[in-house]
């Protein structure tokens, strides 16, 4: 009997031990799995994607249309005067080549001469095309990032130093397709977009008449989701807004050696000098 009981004990307890061991093992495996998932989500968030505008440059087909009209027709966007006659009462005044120098003195001088002449005017172009190259880099070594619902806005913010006062949306366009940015790699999309909005075209002609470039800010709204590769799993898409500043919109082709302009996540654009300078001076 005693021997039988001993046998029973010897057979029962190893069985219990096996069960205990298996339960413990399952718990440990589950804990590790959950921890790995949590760490993956914490360490690699989809919003860690690094967006930038290649070469910090947006190519523009034109910004305005130039024409010469007789002085008598009042020009809308008058910039400089070109005198056809060589009788020059004001020799010290050179023809204005610098587009930024409005030819007011030139005009008064010519007025004194009383000679017929023409004026170079800048009018709104029939349409303007812009080429933007958006680049996305995925710093994660473990997961791919699925970018969808991408919308770009090119905004002229004259007072970017402080606020969005006077901001003008030059163009807003969606990318027709999303893309997957594989781990530790980048993906670039170049897109031409045509602007025919008369209000924008008139704004460009009046603000940048005669100039070949201007600084702007690009807003990128993108929905990002992590796609883990070991066990294929996609996180819920998260909408992230980015601001890329300052980019140059210009007629030239981008310099291939120029640095990309990094985009930063945020609801509000990154004002160049922050709120410190715009804070009212302390009362004295
Ligand atoms: C990326 O997201 C789009 C839209 O939700 C989906 O159709 C596509 O299959 C996703 N790609 C991957 C690789 O998960
Ligand atoms: C933006 O800044 C300008 C110049 O400092 C100021 O005149 C204007 O009131 C500001 N606008 C807003 C909405 O804060
Ligand atoms: C970004 O896009 C989403 C979806 O279209 C929209 O709900 C959200 O308001 C947009 N955010 C900004 C800042 O434009």
Automatic annotation (TrEMBL):
Annotated TM spans: 21-43
Record has Transmembrane helix as a keyword: yes
Keyword terms, alphabetized: Membrane, Transmembrane, Transmembrane helix
The keyword Membrane is annotated on this UniProt entry: yes
Superkingdom of the organism of origin: Eukaryota
PANTHER family, A to Z: LATE EMBRYOGENESIS ABUNDANT PROTEIN LEA-2 SUBGROUP DOMAIN-CONTAINING PROTEIN, OS06G0118900 PROTEIN-RELATED
Protein name, per record: Uncharacterized protein
